[in-house]
Design a protein that fits this description.
- The chain is an alpha/beta fold and about 240 residues long.
- The chain has two domains: about 160 residues, 3-Layer(aba) Sandwich (Rossmann fold), CATH 3.40.50; about 70 residues, Orthogonal Bundle (DNA polymerase, domain 1).
- Helices cover about 45% and strands about 15% of the residues.
- α3 crosses α4.
- The mean pLDDT is about 95.
- One of its GO terms (molecular function) is (S)-2-haloacid dehalogenase activity.
- This is (S)-2-haloacid dehalogenase 4A.
- It comes from Corynebacterium occultum.
- It is an enzyme of class 3 (hydrolase).
């Protein structure tokens, strides 16, 4: 007998996780408004992907080398390097702070609210773990009216190791009081999903807007793949 789509979904998520750990940057937050910040100071909007990728690169590189720096400090360093080279701008502290302040004004993606409510309604505990900061996470979810659905907000300042280092996931598990096998990491970044899987968690890859994008073959395959958080949440209802 051919299993139904619902039966296939149930098989993928059994046993049900007791905790869902959300990545924040780009998984929950929509960073498109940062393009406007760049334009306001005279930089091209297209600089955003390079800038953000550079922040992640440098944070992960420092972790690999045994060092550490906060997300905001690396964001400022990135602009100091990119603005003169890509926009011919003198990167004063005021100009840099104007752009970086945009991280405090982001909104969630359109699918986040319903997806979060579906997961919370299924009885699963929800927490966040970000390479950014808990302050930004809390403000983001406050604006969206979603903070009440989460019991804990964490960032890499605790373990002083950026994801995807195993210590970052271990820190989240310890703070949540759960074993790795009872947790599901949710992220739009394959490297984050891969890191969680290598640390013993399960991983859900959210393809939002990337339906034609293939998950990297060099990385551990996700436990679950969903087009957005609404589809993910529906798997548990």
């Amino acid at each position: 007998m051919i299993p139904t789509q619902k039966e296939v979904r149930i098989a993928m998520i059994e046993p049900r996780p007791t905790v869902v750990i959300f990545d924040v940057n780009e998984t929950l937050s929509d960073q498109s408004s940062l393009r406007d910040r760049l334009v306001e100071v005279g930089a091209p909007a297209e600089l955003l992907p390079e800038w953000f990728s550079g922040i992640l690169r440098d944070g992960m590189a420092l972790t690999a080398a045994g060092g550490y720096a906060d997300f905001a400090d690396l964001a400022r360093d990135g602009l100091r390097a990119l603005l003169p080279a890509r926009a011919g701008l003198t990167p004063s502290d005021g100009l840099i702070d104007q752009v970086v302040a945009g991280f405090h004004r982001l909104d969630v993606h359109p699918d986040v609210a319903e997806g979060v409510r579906l997961l919370h309604g299924s009885g699963i505990r929800l927490i966040t773990m970000t390479n950014g900061s808990t302050t930004i996470t809390e403000a983001l979810l406050d604006r969206a009216g979603l903070r009440e659905y989460f019991e804990l907000h964490l960032d890499v300042r605790g373990p002083r190791r950026w994801k995807p280092a195993p210590a970052a996931y271990g820190y989240a598990l310890a703070r949540a009081g759960v074993a790795a096998g009872d947790a599901l990491l949710v992220a739009v970044h394959p490297w984050d999903v891969d890191g969680a899987l290598r640390a013993g968690l399960r991983g859900a890859w959210i393809r939002r807007g990337q339906a034609a994008t293939a998950y990297p073959k060099a990385m551990v395959a996700p436990t679950i793949t969903a087009d957005d958080l609404v589809e993910l949440g529906a798997m548990f209802t």
